[in-house]
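Provenance

Sequences were taken from public entries as deposited. Structures were produced by running a predictor on each sequence independently, with no templates supplied. The record for Glutamate receptor from Macaca mulatta is shown for reference.
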Amino acid sequence: CIDILKKLSRTVKFTYDLYLVTNGKHGKKVNNVWNGMIGEVVYQRAVMAVGSLTINEERSEVVDFSVPFVETGISVMVSRSNGTVSPSAFLEPFSASVWVMMFVMLLIVSAIAVFVFEYFSPVGYNRNLAKGKAPHGPSFTIGKAIWLLWGLVFNNSVPVQNPKGTTSKIMVSVWAFFAVIFLASYTANLAAFMIQEEFVDQVTGLSDKKFQRPHDYSPPFRFGTVPNGSTERNIRNNYPYMHQYMTKFNQKGVEDALVSLKTGKLDAFIYDAAVLNYKAGRDEGCKLVTIGSGYIFATTGYGIALQKGSPWKRQIDLALLQFVGDGEMEELETLWLTGICHNEKNEVMSSQLDIDNM
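Predicted structure for Glutamate receptor:
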């Protein structure tokens, strides 16, 4: 915000004296009296207020806001926690259809085909049986064919009986080539699934069941925000039961909330999206994440608060639009809001391989 103020002063041609409000608040109406930065502008102690001021209807009634210079809203932050590996994790690399296809190919198509070709081969184990004569020496049964193909799939050095017929040998070679691809794909995807040891609570929005019916979970889902802000006001107006429940988990400030998330005292923290993305990007150890890669609910923006009817509003609006058009705002967002955790790939994305992949 200071960088934006400096750019505005050079573009619009004004000087300024900068000071911090005494209570350090953005501004809320308490007993019909505005406090914080909004109060400074309303009672004409300041010409403008620059900061992470969320534009909302209540504030817009008493001050004029510039065009938004940062898109924001409400987002949810959670902490990564150690997850558990499912007993069926070894099946997860492939979809059910792939497993069914593999066993059908093994038991019905390939094994039977290898057995039939070996049975009728003039040089195979079963050449005497095919001619109606008594067998001499070992025979090649369908069970041995299944055991051979099964051993090839899992690259296991089990004792097997290889066919002698040329056609059946070619079929076994083709199956061995498939087995190499199958096993390599399985191993790689299984490793990706196993890397996902960390668990992240997933919520779909403020109307999610975890927020609306937290007592349905054991232990109850714990979430809160910082009171006396636009986030709390939005929740209070739209989700009264949710607001009533979360008051006992509300935090004194953002830093307190981050500590509560990391220590397990809080399951989710609801707050301004831009602030949460900034904190998540600079979190030590990258344990804090915003759900849905920073998905925003109740989208709004940050604006500069000016006195009602201020002559500066038009010039500031034009300057901010120019900054956006020239890409200067994007450069500032990249500089200040993108941290190391956003640049690194902290989440391992893996999905089941389907028949199309095979």
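The chain is about 45% helix and 10% strand.
The chain has a mean pLDDT of 81.
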